[in-house]
Amino acid sequence: MLDETTRLRLPLVRRLEAIGFRAWPAASAQYDGSWLVRLTPGHGSRRLNSINPLDPHDGSDMAGRLERAARRFRDAGLVPTVRQTPLTPPGLVAHLDATGWTRLSETIVMTADIPPHPASDELGHVPLRDVARFVDARMAIAGDPPESRAALTAVIEAIRAECGLFLFEDVGEGPTAVALAVQDYDLAGLLLVAVRPERRGEGIGRDIVGASLRWARLKGARKAWLAVEAENVPALALYRGLGFTEAYRYLYRTPAGE
Question: N or C: which end of the chain has fewer CB within 10 A?
């Protein structure tokens, strides 16, 4: 049984989930009923490699469906992972609890209205068109493993909505911050936001997020969304300072011992 608060926010959750899947497409996406199984071998993102139940009332044959999905993950050399959101059937959550599935990191999905900007004010920062250069910068800043380069490039190139690849650089120092904005109708997602560790706390993160939102607004977006780990206190402070508020949370579940 869903509580009233959860029931009332489900339409927003459904829309943001659908937009999020389009903004960050998996290499393989297959449905088992309303359960979406996403796989992207070669990329470590759990969001790209997860079982996503999308109807809180679709909890039939949970054990069988979990086993089928888990087999696909193991065949791909991956750990079976359920992404538990407000759309996850309560019965499935109880089943995962009863069978010892581990709860991993919690993520907060946040939204904010994108304010209009004075017509006389210019864009300021123009997004890149060079995906390879953006990927190299992201990997250098975030310390991503070299073997993930091809998969990250493929994910970005697979995005069908309009993208803004933002890169801040200092002469002689190289890339200092990156952000990916994906504009989809009136919504814009912010992904891959990262600031060089030694340059954090200087306002660079706020500047590159602001540049991304400005571009998205000019493209027609009126509301922005993003996902941030609940334990990332500095990022939460940054986003809250920009007017973002919590929409919902999700977490990942894996079988005990895997």
Answer: N
